[in-house]
Amino acid sequence: MGLIFYSSSRSVAKVTQIYWPDFVVKKLAHIAEYATLSLLLYRGFMASGFKSGKAGVYAIVLSIIYAISDELHQSFTPGREPRVRDIIFDTIGAGLAIYCFRKFLPKAPKKIKFWAKKLQLQV
Question: Is the C-alpha dihedral spanning 5, 7, 10, 14 positive or negative?
Fold first, then answer.
């Protein structure tokens, strides 16, 4: 969350002068950072004793709340402006991460399951 807050405090530089590659790179970054956030929150909820389903829902909801607060924070940052579509991309990242994790980890090869257990990421 601190890294997201720090990134939101900085001015935005264009990745390229062409609009669509710049848009794609930035939105993929939104998806990736909120996917990571939701998985870390999921891990925390699981370690606190929540069941997998509730942990996933709480991780997604908390990620969305943080996305909203991040956009509010950007409204006070020079050179940044809040966008609802960024919240949508953040939500996609959070939800997709939890969905893929819960759907595919049980079917994953043993080595991946081993590392998930080591990282305390269990379904």
Answer: negative
